[in-house]
């Protein structure tokens, strides 16, 4: 996927995230504290918690040193709250430095954390795809995708050595199919130049990220080609929408 020197640099940059820890607490006077704590697997006291969700009768207020957005989160009706819905809102409030540690410790937050990591890297690679210098984008995109994969691996509790990181990147890069996604993007985004470059950067990163999630959710089982085709198709559609929004700016 990339040279050993650059791979080691990326590995070193992402290793800390795989070792850090973070704690989530759900507290408050509401009778629903227990329900929401159980949904997220959170503790019910604030001791040493970096993320604190204070539940009132109408809303959830996030606070703590890992929280960057303290806007209230609407409280779902009793019995209607789902872990996925709640996780998406909670993860949206968290400082990105704490995302991987929280995903490691709290599996209900894992998919929402990984989606946020994937979309962030996809947007960055779309911008890199706008570079006017031919060939200058690929090393930067590749490094970005490698960081993303290693962060996702850490979020799923993977113990990362340099050798393991190298193996993972090789397996996942080979499986997601850059050529296939490039062909799909060209069909959907027929305009050349910056639009195609941005779309390929976005779609390729999303496809690699989603296939990585599926790989770890299945305990290291390789993603089938039909599933990979569907992942690439959806990633291409999302890239088309992203490029359309860029054009309107």
Description:
This protein is α+β, with helices and mostly antiparallel strands and 249 residues long. It folds into 2 domains: 4-18 and 110-248, no CATH class; 21-104, no CATH class. Helices cover 61% and strands 6% of the residues. It is built from 10 helices and 4 strands, in the order αβαβββαααααααα. It has helices at 4-19, 33-40, 83-91, 99-105, 110-128, 137-155, 162-176, 178-188, 194-217, 225-248, and strands at 24-27, 51-55, 59-63, 73-74. The chain has a 4-stranded mixed β-sheet with strand order 1-2-3-4, with helices on one face. A hairpin with a 3-residue loop joins strand 2 (51-55) and strand 3. The chain is globular, with a radius of gyration of 19 Å. The two termini are 34 Å apart. 40% of the residues are buried. The mean pLDDT is 87.
Structural class: alpha+beta
The geometry reads as: globular
Spans where pLDDT lies below 50 across 5 or more residues: none
Name the beta content range.
5-15%
List the strand order in the largest sheet: 1-2-3-4
Task: Determine the N-to-C terminus distance.
Answer: 34 Å
Helix content estimate: 55-70%
Number of domains: 2
Largest sheet, in brief, is: 4 strands, mixed
Number of H- or I-type helical stretches? 10
Q: Give the beta-strand count.
A: 4
Radius of gyration: 19 Å
Mean pLDDT: 87
**Helix-strand pattern, N to C?**
HEHEEEHHHHHHHH
């Amino acid at each position: 996927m990339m040279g050993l020197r650059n791979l080691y640099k990326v590995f070193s940059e992402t290793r800390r995230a795989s070792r850090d820890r973070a704690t989530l607490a759900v507290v408050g006077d509401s009778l629903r504290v227990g329900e929401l704590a159980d949904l997220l697997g959170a503790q019910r006291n604030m001791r040493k918690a970096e993320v604190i969700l204070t539940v009132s009768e109408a809303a959830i207020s996030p606070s703590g040193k890992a929280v960057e957005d303290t806007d209230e989160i609407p409280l779902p009706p009793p019995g209607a709250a789902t872990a996925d819905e709640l996780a998406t809102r909670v993860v949206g409030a968290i400082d990105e430095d704490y995302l991987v540690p929280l995903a490691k410790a709290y599996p209900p937050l894992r998919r929402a954390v990984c989606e946020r990591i994937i979309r962030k890297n996809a947007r960055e690679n779309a911008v890199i795809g706008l570079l006017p210098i031919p060939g200058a984008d690929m090393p930067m995109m590749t490094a970005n995708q490698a960081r993303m994969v290693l962060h996702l691996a850490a979020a799923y509790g993977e113990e990362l050595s340099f050798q393991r990181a190298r193996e993972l990147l090789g397996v996942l890069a080979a499986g997601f199919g850059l050529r296939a996604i490039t062909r799909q993007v060209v069909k959907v985004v027929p305009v050349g130049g910056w639009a195609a470059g941005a779309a390929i950067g976005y779609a390729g990163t999303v496809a690699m990220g989603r296939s990585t999630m599926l790989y770890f959710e299945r305990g290291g089982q390789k993603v089938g080609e039909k599933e990979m085709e569907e992942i690439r198709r959806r990633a291409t559609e999302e890239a088309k929408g992203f490029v359309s929004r860029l054009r309107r700016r």
